[in-house]
Amino acid sequence: xxxxxxxxxxxxxxxxxxxxxxxxxxxxxxxxxxxxxxxxxxxxxxxxxxxxxxxxxxxxxxxxxxxxxxxxxxxxxxxxxxxxxxxxxxxxxxxxxxxxxxxxxxxxxxxxxxxxxxxxxxxxxxxxxxxxxxxxxxxxxxxxxxxxxxxxxxxxxxxxxxxxxxxxxxxxxxxxxxxxxxxxxxxxxxxxxxxxxxxxxxxxxxxxxxxxxxxxxxxxxxxxxxxxxxxxxxxxxxxxxxxxxxxxxxxxxxxxxxxxxxxxxxxxxxxxxxxxxxxxxxxxxxxxxxxxxxxxxxxxxxxxxxxxxxxxxxxxxxxxxxxxxxxxxxxxxxxxxxxxxxxxxxxxxxxxxxxxxxxxxxxxxxxxxxxxxxxxxxxxx
Length: 381
Prior knowledge:
Distance between the termini: 43 Å
Low-confidence stretches: 1-16, 44-52, 90-102
Mean pLDDT: 81
Protein name: Poly(U)-specific endoribonuclease-like protein
Number of domains: 2
Transmembrane segments: 72-91
Domain EndoU: 120-381
Radius of gyration: 24 Å
Strand content: 15-25%
Number of strands: 10
Structural class: alpha+beta
Subunit structure: Monomer.
Helix content: 40-55%
Number of helices: 14
Cofactor: Mn(2+)
Order of helices and strands: HHHHHHHEEHHHHHEEHEEEHEEE
Largest sheet: 3 strands, antiparallel
């Protein structure tokens, strides 16, 4: 049982047989402890749900074959406990605070942990402050007006904010080159994660045009210089652009093998999975959807004046219990900030910054075993 409790080997046929042998060795009085140990094993396995279910089922079938031989009532009872408990724990949705619906992130990203410890939080704060000052395209305070209305909670069903969040936005902002390049990308994406996507030549042209616009800005180049100094990205502009394409626009699955997701879509566009809104961490996207009547703002959870907010809303028939974004920032600022944090300080609340003196942590994760951005979003502190 002690061996089982620390079980971390690769799945093999012999592993299941070993569990069955332990049953033989210990007898009926240990079945309850064995049930708990097996539950611990299955919960700790960091595998995909389908594979975990397969090995649970495989083990249970082996156990029941033993039960039929032994004709043991108690063995039947406790293997049944194993079946019900492990399946329930395996299928239970994640309880991560910001986005409980997201999975597949590499939270044991050891490669990043080795170097990010050498990057001081103060360095990041100084850099982001310089980026903020250089953000010539961000909205000024008189370029928009917000109406937060009542505070709510993530699980509140009642709409506590009958009016839109954005009362007014100066749409002259949208004529600037980086905004236009961003808006050109929006139609390329379908928010439903189960719909496959692929980049044809015309779509790739628009993506690279967006990257070109972003890479010409002061904000981006401050970030790039920092990553170059830390030797985290290529010094060749063409190679770095290709890396950005891979990290942000590389396609991966969030739904049964369908290549219907990318880091950019998740963060800057937003996605639907079942009845949940996933991602969507850019203020302009929220404003555009709200203006079109597709979003029903239902109240705020946290906000730092006009710097950032955490809110509760519905996007058509899909729900966002906890959604957050910076307010009024340019596409190049958010893109550069999230690129910085993903490459230099990714992890839960790992990238600690100050924006207009307000503390904000950026959480970033990559897709498990892949170089793609899984998510990156601001968290109010």
